């Protein structure tokens, strides 16, 4: 178990470095690699706890850049509704089909956005308002189901916010709210116990080191967009591989 937790800690360094730079990705990366070390029922609650801790740090650091109007009026209400639907559907949803649909959608969208960036040499503009409901509600549903369903929300935010500080700060605040809800759900469902809390504490240094490394890395706006869509592409690929 000691070797397993050490390897998971190394994975968390990579995952939380990406989260610190981009404002998302730690759970996606850690779940994609950590699933080979621990069962999902143990791993997911641990990652949600660590994600919550990092969100608190990121919000405290970037709170001046939070777009409260967009978060509270556009993103959060639909994401919460979707997450409640996702949590309620855990026992009846066809997870393989949902993962395939989400994975394919994310791969196509991320490749299209990357092509647009390199062809036009500039990121695309904001999405029209009628894309908001399916993207944000769908992202909430997948977050409630898998705790990693943020890609549709990330895609929406990547088009909504042109500055990486606004993108990072607003998304980190959203993850903070949603992960609090997930943890409450884990507690009520009996999926959170002292053993998982203890294991999370043991790999906490990996998260801290990832935050430190990520804080030292600076990325230009265009490359920030490119890295965002690359990570989304691999997120979609991960969902298809897990079928």
Folded structure, characterized:
There is one protein chain. With 243 residues, this protein is mostly helical. The chain has one domain (2-241). Helix content is 79%, strand content 0%. It contains eleven helices and no strands. The longest helix has 26 residues, at 95-120.
Based on secondary structure, the structural category is mainly alpha
Helix content: over 70%
- Number of DSSP strand runs: 0
Uncertain spans: none
What count of domains describes the coordinates?
Answer: 1
In short:
This protein is mostly helical and 243 residues long. It has helices at 2-22, 26-34, 40-62, 68-88, 95-120, 132-146, 151-160, 164-188, 194-202, 204-215, 221-241.
What labels would you give this structure?
globular
List the helices and strands and how they pair.
Layout lengths: L1 H21 L3 H9 L5 H23 L5 H21 L6 H26 L11 H15 L4 H10 L3 H25 L5 H9 L1 H12 L5 H21 L2
Helix pairs in contact: 1-2, 1-10, 2-3, 3-8, 3-9, 4-6, 4-8, 5-11, 6-7, 7-11
């Amino acid at each position: 178990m000691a070797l397993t937790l050490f390897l998971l800690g190394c994975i968390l360094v990579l995952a939380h470095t990406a989260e610190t730079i981009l404002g998302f990705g730690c759970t996606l990366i850690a779940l994609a690699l950590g699933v080979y070390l621990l069962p999902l029922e143990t791993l997911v609650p641990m990652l949600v706890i660590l994600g919550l801790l990092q969100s608190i740090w990121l919000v405290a650091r970037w709170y001046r850049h939070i777009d409260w109007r967009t978060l509270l009026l556009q993103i959060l209400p639909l994401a919460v509704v979707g997450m409640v639907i996702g949590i309620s559907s855990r026992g009846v949803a066809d997870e393989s089909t949902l993962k395939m649909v989400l994975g394919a959608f994310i791969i196509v969208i991320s490749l299209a956005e990357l092509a647009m960036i390199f062809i036009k040499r500039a990121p695309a503009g904001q999405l029209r308002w009628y894309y908001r409901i399916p993207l944000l509600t769908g992202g909430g549903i997948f977050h409630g189901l898998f705790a990693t369903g943020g890609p549709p929300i990330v895609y929406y935010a990547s088009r909504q916010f042109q500055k990486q500080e606004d993108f990072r700060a607003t998304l980190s605040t959203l993850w903070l709210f949603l992960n609090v809800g997930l943890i409450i759900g884990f507690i009520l469902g009996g999926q959170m116990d002292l053993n998982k809390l203890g294991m999370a504490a043991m790999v906490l240094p990996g998260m801290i080191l990832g935050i430190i490394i990520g804080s030292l890395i600076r990325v230009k706006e265009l490359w920030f967009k490119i890295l965002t869509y690359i990570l989304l592409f691999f997120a979609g690929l991960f969902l298809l591989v897990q079928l």
